[in-house]
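Q: Start with the shorter request: fold the first protein.
A: Done. Sequence, then structure:
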Amino acid sequence: MSPPPFFTIGYEQVSSAAVLDTLSGAGVDLLVDVRAVAASRRAGFSKSHLAAGVSARGIGYLHLRGLGTPAEGRQAARSGHYDELRRIYDAHLATPTAQEQLDELTALVKAGRRVCVLCFERHPEHCHRQMVADLICERVGLNVEHLMAPPV
């Protein structure tokens, strides 16, 4: 039996119901929020609302703030400067907090959890979650599956 894939999802241009349906459909059992700031103007995506929404579907929630993008990295992403985002986030990943939280995430995946990391950007190639996924998959020997909820 092969291990489950490691999932990612972004909530840009989608409803919270669509994200919850997509997570449930993939059999995710733990949603890991990798936003530095787990607040959103989009309905259903602030930390407490998101945690309640996934809990109602039998999915756990964990916020690993230390894996979020620093403010200057978020600005680079909003400006379309993805190489700059990668440079900033690479430096951030070298911090002790980020390393501890990468280790925590790795342990959860190694334990067989069906984990999905969540951030805002719809397309993973424009988001730091792709970098997190690459590191986790390399550490654990899994493939990544980028979930895409239908847009609104």
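Q: Next, the second protein, separately.
A: Sequence, then structure:
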Amino acid sequence: VSSLQIIFYEDRNFQGRSYECSSECSDLHSHFSRCNSIRVDSGDWMVYERPNYTGYQYFLRKGDYPDYQRWMGFNDCVRSCRMIPSGSHRMMIYERPEFGGQTAELTSDCPSLYERFHFSDVHSCSVKDGHWIFYEHPHYRGRQYLVRPGEYRRFNEWGSMTPRVGSIRRITV
């Protein structure tokens, strides 16, 4: 049985040069120059537009993505990736930097942060358990940001340019 998890293809519809990956990789550029299709054999993955887990982030589940629009990609640039483990989920979100202001605890998905908590700017968070995705807009739309267990004192620490969070989803198997 292969431990194969995710396959990147330079061309659409799983054509051209390919690279198979089964663990996180901070710089995929030496393996392929562009990425127009992806096949996820197993696991949940975040793929990133730039090296070292930066730039646009895309959450991918098991399945076939024959062109980059299928994973909501803005271009054919994929430069790093990481697999996401599953388990229990608990996170505290804060309206202000450095864990200040209004606070809320999450243990489940939140399709609209504003409807549930009456604020939609998250300046800091503390992830106790599990992996989560912050979405820029309600109902899991817009830019995506992976938050892993740990403390984030400011929104730029999870890769965002603004504190705007419209919805939050747990990564579960």
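Q: Describe the second briefly.
A: The chain is about 5% helix and 45% strand. The two ends are 20 Å apart (CA to CA).
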